[in-house]
Here is the input.
Amino acid sequence: MPAAGLPLRRLVLRSLRTVGRDVHLVLDPIRLALSIPQALVLLLGRRPDTVFTTGGYVAIPVLLAARLVRIPTVLWDGNVIPGRSVRATAGLASVVTVSFRETCAALGRAGSAKGAPAGVPCVLTGTPIRAIRDIDPLAARERLGIAPGERLLLVFGGSQAVRRLNDAVEAVLPALVARCHVIHVTGDLGYGPALAAREALSPDVRDRYRPARFLGDEMAEALMAADLVVGRAGSSTLAEVTAAGVPLIVVPYPHAGGHQRANARVLVEAGAAREIDDADFDGPALLEAIGILEDPATHAGMAAAARSLGRPGAADALAAIAVALAERRPLPDATTIDRLARGAA
Here is the structure.
Protein backbone atom coordinates (compact mmCIF):
# COMPACT_ATOMS: atom_id res chain seq x y z
CA MET A 1 0.00 0.00 0.00
CA PRO A 2 2.74 2.56 0.74
CA ALA A 3 4.23 1.85 -2.69
CA ALA A 4 0.87 2.82 -4.19
CA GLY A 5 0.82 6.06 -2.21
CA LEU A 6 -1.81 4.86 0.26
CA PRO A 7 -1.29 5.57 3.96
CA LEU A 8 -1.04 2.45 6.12
CA ARG A 9 -1.15 2.20 9.89
CA ARG A 10 -0.44 -1.19 11.44
CA LEU A 11 -1.62 -2.52 14.78
CA VAL A 12 0.61 -4.31 17.27
CA LEU A 13 -1.01 -7.70 16.77
CA ARG A 14 0.05 -10.08 14.01
CA SER A 15 -1.93 -12.33 11.71
CA LEU A 16 -2.56 -15.77 13.21
CA ARG A 17 -1.16 -17.74 10.28
CA THR A 18 0.77 -19.90 12.74
CA VAL A 19 -0.55 -21.13 16.05
CA GLY A 20 2.30 -23.32 17.24
CA ARG A 21 3.34 -23.81 20.84
CA ASP A 22 5.97 -21.09 20.96
CA VAL A 23 6.57 -17.68 22.46
CA HIS A 24 3.74 -16.25 20.33
CA LEU A 25 1.27 -18.34 22.31
CA VAL A 26 1.97 -15.95 25.19
CA LEU A 27 2.61 -12.81 23.15
CA ASP A 28 -0.47 -12.94 20.90
CA PRO A 29 -3.02 -12.28 23.69
CA ILE A 30 -0.82 -9.40 24.90
CA ARG A 31 -0.63 -7.98 21.35
CA LEU A 32 -4.40 -8.26 21.02
CA ALA A 33 -4.96 -6.43 24.31
CA LEU A 34 -2.55 -3.65 23.31
CA SER A 35 -4.14 -3.30 19.88
CA ILE A 36 -7.57 -2.39 21.23
CA PRO A 37 -6.52 0.98 22.75
CA GLN A 38 -4.26 1.52 19.72
CA ALA A 39 -7.24 1.07 17.39
CA LEU A 40 -9.31 3.34 19.62
CA VAL A 41 -6.72 6.13 19.37
CA LEU A 42 -6.56 5.75 15.58
CA LEU A 43 -10.33 5.93 15.19
CA LEU A 44 -10.66 8.90 17.54
CA GLY A 45 -7.90 10.67 15.63
CA ARG A 46 -9.34 10.03 12.17
CA ARG A 47 -13.07 9.96 13.05
CA PRO A 48 -14.04 7.90 10.00
CA ASP A 49 -17.70 7.96 8.97
CA THR A 50 -17.71 4.20 8.64
CA VAL A 51 -15.34 1.23 8.81
CA PHE A 52 -15.08 -1.61 6.28
CA THR A 53 -13.47 -4.87 7.34
CA THR A 54 -13.05 -8.39 6.00
CA GLY A 55 -13.41 -9.65 9.54
CA GLY A 56 -10.14 -11.51 10.08
CA TYR A 57 -8.31 -11.76 13.37
CA VAL A 58 -6.55 -8.43 12.84
CA ALA A 59 -9.96 -6.73 12.57
CA ILE A 60 -11.08 -7.65 16.10
CA PRO A 61 -9.54 -4.58 17.83
CA VAL A 62 -10.96 -2.22 15.20
CA LEU A 63 -14.46 -3.67 15.47
CA LEU A 64 -14.33 -3.42 19.27
CA ALA A 65 -13.03 0.15 19.15
CA ALA A 66 -15.61 1.18 16.53
CA ARG A 67 -18.41 -0.19 18.68
CA LEU A 68 -17.10 1.80 21.68
CA VAL A 69 -17.10 5.12 19.80
CA ARG A 70 -20.29 4.38 17.82
CA ILE A 71 -18.76 4.28 14.36
CA PRO A 72 -20.82 2.03 12.03
CA THR A 73 -19.03 -0.94 10.49
CA VAL A 74 -19.47 -3.12 7.41
CA LEU A 75 -18.09 -6.65 7.83
CA TRP A 76 -17.62 -8.64 4.62
CA ASP A 77 -16.81 -12.35 4.39
CA GLY A 78 -16.09 -14.12 1.10
CA ASN A 79 -16.35 -17.80 2.09
CA VAL A 80 -19.33 -20.10 2.47
CA ILE A 81 -17.95 -21.22 5.85
CA PRO A 82 -17.17 -18.11 7.92
CA GLY A 83 -13.89 -18.16 9.80
CA ARG A 84 -13.65 -18.22 13.57
CA SER A 85 -12.86 -14.51 13.81
CA VAL A 86 -15.87 -13.62 11.65
CA ARG A 87 -18.15 -15.80 13.76
CA ALA A 88 -16.76 -14.20 16.91
CA THR A 89 -17.12 -10.60 15.72
CA ALA A 90 -20.20 -10.61 13.47
CA GLY A 91 -22.26 -9.36 16.40
CA LEU A 92 -20.12 -6.21 16.60
CA ALA A 93 -20.82 -5.10 13.03
CA SER A 94 -23.58 -2.77 11.90
CA VAL A 95 -24.17 -4.97 8.84
CA VAL A 96 -22.68 -8.26 7.68
CA THR A 97 -22.17 -8.68 3.93
CA VAL A 98 -21.36 -11.98 2.24
CA SER A 99 -20.49 -13.57 -1.09
CA PHE A 100 -22.69 -16.65 -0.62
CA ARG A 101 -26.23 -16.85 0.69
CA GLU A 102 -25.23 -19.93 2.67
CA THR A 103 -22.90 -17.79 4.82
CA CYS A 104 -25.84 -15.95 6.36
CA ALA A 105 -27.32 -19.30 7.36
CA ALA A 106 -23.98 -20.32 8.91
CA LEU A 107 -23.89 -17.11 10.95
CA GLY A 108 -27.48 -17.22 12.12
CA ARG A 109 -31.07 -17.23 10.93
CA ALA A 110 -33.50 -14.97 9.14
CA GLY A 111 -30.84 -12.76 7.64
CA SER A 112 -29.30 -11.64 10.91
CA ALA A 113 -25.77 -12.36 12.05
CA LYS A 114 -25.52 -14.78 14.97
CA GLY A 115 -24.98 -12.92 18.23
CA ALA A 116 -25.86 -9.56 16.69
CA PRO A 117 -28.52 -7.25 18.11
CA ALA A 118 -31.98 -7.68 16.64
CA GLY A 119 -32.25 -6.12 13.20
CA VAL A 120 -28.57 -6.31 12.20
CA PRO A 121 -28.81 -7.59 8.62
CA CYS A 122 -26.78 -10.16 6.73
CA VAL A 123 -26.76 -9.05 3.09
CA LEU A 124 -25.73 -10.94 -0.05
CA THR A 125 -23.48 -8.68 -2.14
CA GLY A 126 -20.94 -10.98 -3.80
CA THR A 127 -17.18 -10.47 -3.89
CA PRO A 128 -15.65 -7.17 -5.05
CA ILE A 129 -13.53 -7.83 -8.14
CA ARG A 130 -11.54 -5.97 -10.78
CA ALA A 131 -13.56 -4.12 -13.42
CA ILE A 132 -14.43 -6.49 -16.25
CA ARG A 133 -17.91 -5.38 -17.33
CA ASP A 134 -16.72 -2.99 -20.04
CA ILE A 135 -14.39 -5.47 -21.73
CA ASP A 136 -15.65 -6.81 -25.08
CA PRO A 137 -14.88 -10.56 -25.17
CA LEU A 138 -14.48 -10.60 -28.96
CA ALA A 139 -12.09 -7.64 -28.87
CA ALA A 140 -10.15 -9.28 -26.04
CA ARG A 141 -9.80 -12.50 -28.05
CA GLU A 142 -8.61 -10.54 -31.08
CA ARG A 143 -5.98 -8.75 -29.00
CA LEU A 144 -4.80 -12.11 -27.65
CA GLY A 145 -4.60 -13.56 -31.16
CA ILE A 146 -7.35 -16.16 -30.68
CA ALA A 147 -8.94 -16.78 -34.07
CA PRO A 148 -12.71 -17.34 -34.41
CA GLY A 149 -13.59 -20.96 -33.72
CA GLU A 150 -10.47 -21.60 -31.62
CA ARG A 151 -10.71 -22.32 -27.90
CA LEU A 152 -8.80 -20.66 -25.05
CA LEU A 153 -8.05 -22.35 -21.73
CA LEU A 154 -6.96 -20.17 -18.80
CA VAL A 155 -5.15 -21.93 -15.95
CA PHE A 156 -4.34 -20.12 -12.72
CA GLY A 157 -4.10 -21.14 -9.11
CA GLY A 158 -4.75 -17.88 -7.31
CA SER A 159 -2.49 -17.28 -4.34
CA GLN A 160 -2.39 -20.84 -2.98
CA ALA A 161 -0.55 -23.97 -4.06
CA VAL A 162 -0.21 -23.58 -7.83
CA ARG A 163 2.28 -26.44 -8.15
CA ARG A 164 -0.42 -29.09 -8.52
CA LEU A 165 -1.89 -27.19 -11.47
CA ASN A 166 1.53 -26.45 -12.98
CA ASP A 167 2.58 -30.09 -12.87
CA ALA A 168 -0.64 -31.21 -14.56
CA VAL A 169 -0.20 -28.73 -17.42
CA GLU A 170 3.45 -29.65 -17.95
CA ALA A 171 2.67 -33.39 -17.98
CA VAL A 172 0.34 -33.18 -20.98
CA LEU A 173 1.32 -29.90 -22.64
CA PRO A 174 1.76 -31.21 -26.23
CA ALA A 175 -1.66 -32.88 -26.15
CA LEU A 176 -3.16 -29.82 -24.50
CA VAL A 177 -2.02 -27.28 -27.09
CA ALA A 178 -3.14 -29.60 -29.88
CA ARG A 179 -6.70 -29.03 -28.65
CA CYS A 180 -6.72 -25.39 -27.49
CA HIS A 181 -4.74 -22.24 -26.78
CA VAL A 182 -3.49 -22.06 -23.18
CA ILE A 183 -2.73 -19.05 -20.99
CA HIS A 184 -1.02 -20.41 -17.89
CA VAL A 185 -0.37 -18.28 -14.79
CA THR A 186 2.46 -20.16 -13.11
CA GLY A 187 3.63 -18.01 -10.21
CA ASP A 188 7.33 -17.26 -9.74
CA LEU A 189 8.54 -20.80 -9.05
CA GLY A 190 6.71 -22.39 -11.95
CA TYR A 191 7.66 -19.88 -14.62
CA GLY A 192 11.11 -21.27 -15.47
CA PRO A 193 9.91 -24.87 -15.98
CA ALA A 194 6.95 -23.58 -18.00
CA LEU A 195 9.24 -21.64 -20.34
CA ALA A 196 11.38 -24.75 -20.79
CA ALA A 197 8.27 -26.81 -21.58
CA ARG A 198 7.21 -24.20 -24.12
CA GLU A 199 10.56 -24.32 -25.88
CA ALA A 200 10.27 -28.10 -26.11
CA LEU A 201 7.04 -27.80 -28.11
CA SER A 202 6.98 -28.08 -31.87
CA PRO A 203 7.52 -24.60 -33.40
CA ASP A 204 4.17 -24.74 -35.20
CA VAL A 205 2.21 -24.93 -31.88
CA ARG A 206 4.55 -23.04 -29.56
CA ASP A 207 2.55 -19.82 -29.81
CA ARG A 208 -0.53 -21.65 -28.52
CA TYR A 209 1.02 -21.83 -25.04
CA ARG A 210 1.61 -18.60 -23.09
CA PRO A 211 3.02 -18.97 -19.60
CA ALA A 212 3.22 -15.92 -17.31
CA ARG A 213 4.37 -15.44 -13.75
CA PHE A 214 1.33 -13.27 -13.00
CA LEU A 215 -1.26 -11.34 -14.97
CA GLY A 216 -1.99 -7.88 -13.63
CA ASP A 217 -4.35 -5.76 -15.69
CA GLU A 218 -4.21 -8.43 -18.40
CA MET A 219 -6.09 -10.90 -16.20
CA ALA A 220 -9.40 -9.17 -16.88
CA GLU A 221 -8.97 -9.57 -20.64
CA ALA A 222 -7.84 -13.18 -20.26
CA LEU A 223 -10.95 -13.99 -18.23
CA MET A 224 -13.30 -12.38 -20.71
CA ALA A 225 -11.57 -14.11 -23.64
CA ALA A 226 -11.41 -17.56 -22.04
CA ASP A 227 -13.70 -20.45 -22.97
CA LEU A 228 -12.78 -22.50 -19.89
CA VAL A 229 -10.92 -21.80 -16.65
CA VAL A 230 -9.02 -24.21 -14.44
CA GLY A 231 -8.43 -22.86 -10.96
CA ARG A 232 -8.82 -23.01 -7.22
CA ALA A 233 -11.95 -22.06 -5.27
CA GLY A 234 -10.97 -18.86 -3.53
CA SER A 235 -13.70 -16.25 -3.27
CA SER A 236 -12.12 -13.87 -5.80
CA THR A 237 -11.48 -16.61 -8.36
CA LEU A 238 -15.08 -17.80 -8.24
CA ALA A 239 -16.41 -14.25 -8.35
CA GLU A 240 -14.35 -13.31 -11.41
CA VAL A 241 -15.13 -16.51 -13.29
CA THR A 242 -18.89 -16.20 -12.72
CA ALA A 243 -18.85 -12.47 -13.55
CA ALA A 244 -17.20 -13.38 -16.85
CA GLY A 245 -19.69 -16.21 -17.43
CA VAL A 246 -17.01 -18.83 -18.02
CA PRO A 247 -17.28 -22.55 -17.10
CA LEU A 248 -14.82 -23.65 -14.44
CA ILE A 249 -12.85 -26.78 -13.66
CA VAL A 250 -12.37 -26.23 -9.95
CA VAL A 251 -9.62 -27.88 -7.90
CA PRO A 252 -10.26 -26.78 -4.30
CA TYR A 253 -7.24 -26.15 -2.11
CA PRO A 254 -7.46 -29.11 0.27
CA HIS A 255 -6.37 -27.32 3.45
CA ALA A 256 -7.49 -24.17 5.32
CA GLY A 257 -10.42 -25.90 7.01
CA GLY A 258 -12.16 -27.00 3.82
CA HIS A 259 -13.31 -23.46 2.98
CA GLN A 260 -12.57 -23.84 -0.72
CA ARG A 261 -14.40 -27.14 -1.01
CA ALA A 262 -17.53 -25.49 0.42
CA ASN A 263 -17.11 -22.52 -1.92
CA ALA A 264 -16.74 -24.82 -4.94
CA ARG A 265 -19.85 -26.79 -4.01
CA VAL A 266 -22.06 -23.76 -4.71
CA LEU A 267 -20.87 -23.53 -8.32
CA VAL A 268 -20.89 -27.30 -8.84
CA GLU A 269 -24.47 -27.63 -7.61
CA ALA A 270 -25.54 -24.74 -9.85
CA GLY A 271 -23.99 -26.46 -12.87
CA ALA A 272 -21.34 -23.77 -13.44
CA ALA A 273 -18.32 -25.89 -12.49
CA ARG A 274 -16.96 -29.41 -12.35
CA GLU A 275 -14.87 -30.34 -9.34
CA ILE A 276 -11.71 -32.45 -9.32
CA ASP A 277 -10.18 -33.36 -5.99
CA ASP A 278 -6.68 -31.97 -5.48
CA ALA A 279 -5.26 -35.47 -4.99
CA ASP A 280 -6.81 -36.63 -8.29
CA PHE A 281 -5.79 -33.66 -10.42
CA ASP A 282 -3.05 -34.61 -12.86
CA GLY A 283 -2.35 -34.42 -16.57
CA PRO A 284 -4.82 -37.10 -17.71
CA ALA A 285 -7.53 -35.61 -15.47
CA LEU A 286 -6.92 -32.21 -17.06
CA LEU A 287 -7.17 -33.61 -20.58
CA GLU A 288 -10.41 -35.38 -19.74
CA ALA A 289 -11.85 -32.24 -18.14
CA ILE A 290 -11.30 -30.00 -21.16
CA GLY A 291 -13.64 -32.25 -23.10
CA ILE A 292 -16.18 -29.59 -22.12
CA LEU A 293 -14.67 -27.43 -24.86
CA GLU A 294 -15.70 -30.05 -27.45
CA ASP A 295 -19.28 -30.39 -26.17
CA PRO A 296 -21.13 -27.20 -27.22
CA ALA A 297 -24.36 -27.97 -25.33
CA THR A 298 -22.60 -28.73 -22.05
CA HIS A 299 -20.34 -25.71 -22.44
CA ALA A 300 -23.26 -23.37 -23.14
CA GLY A 301 -25.20 -24.71 -20.15
CA MET A 302 -22.27 -24.26 -17.78
CA ALA A 303 -21.60 -20.74 -19.10
CA ALA A 304 -25.23 -19.76 -18.53
CA ALA A 305 -25.13 -21.18 -15.01
CA ALA A 306 -21.94 -19.20 -14.30
CA ARG A 307 -23.51 -15.96 -15.53
CA SER A 308 -26.56 -16.54 -13.33
CA LEU A 309 -24.27 -16.55 -10.28
CA GLY A 310 -22.15 -13.58 -11.36
CA ARG A 311 -22.14 -10.34 -9.36
CA PRO A 312 -19.72 -8.07 -11.24
CA GLY A 313 -21.06 -5.02 -9.40
CA ALA A 314 -20.41 -6.34 -5.88
CA ALA A 315 -18.08 -3.42 -5.15
CA ASP A 316 -20.88 -0.99 -6.05
CA ALA A 317 -23.29 -2.82 -3.75
CA LEU A 318 -20.82 -2.71 -0.87
CA ALA A 319 -20.11 0.97 -1.52
CA ALA A 320 -23.82 1.75 -1.40
CA ILE A 321 -24.10 0.06 1.98
CA ALA A 322 -21.00 1.81 3.36
CA VAL A 323 -22.17 5.25 2.18
CA ALA A 324 -25.65 4.71 3.64
CA LEU A 325 -24.09 3.89 7.01
CA ALA A 326 -21.72 6.85 6.79
CA GLU A 327 -24.63 9.20 6.09
CA ARG A 328 -26.77 7.55 8.79
CA ARG A 329 -29.41 6.63 6.23
CA PRO A 330 -31.38 3.37 6.02
CA LEU A 331 -29.60 0.61 4.13
CA PRO A 332 -30.62 0.07 0.48
CA ASP A 333 -33.28 -2.61 0.18
CA ALA A 334 -32.43 -6.14 -0.95
CA THR A 335 -33.73 -5.53 -4.50
CA THR A 336 -31.50 -2.49 -4.94
CA ILE A 337 -28.44 -4.33 -3.56
CA ASP A 338 -29.07 -7.30 -5.87
CA ARG A 339 -29.51 -4.99 -8.88
CA LEU A 340 -26.24 -3.19 -8.12
CA ALA A 341 -24.38 -6.44 -7.45
CA ARG A 342 -25.50 -7.94 -10.74
CA GLY A 343 -24.12 -4.95 -12.58
CA ALA A 344 -27.08 -2.65 -13.22
CA ALA A 345 -26.26 1.05 -13.35
Strands lie at 51-53, 73-77, 95-98, 122-124, 152-156, 181-185, 209-212, 228-231, 248-250, 273-275. The radius of gyration is 22 Å. Residues 24-46 form the longest helix (23 residues). The chain has two domains: 22-128+313-341, 137-309.
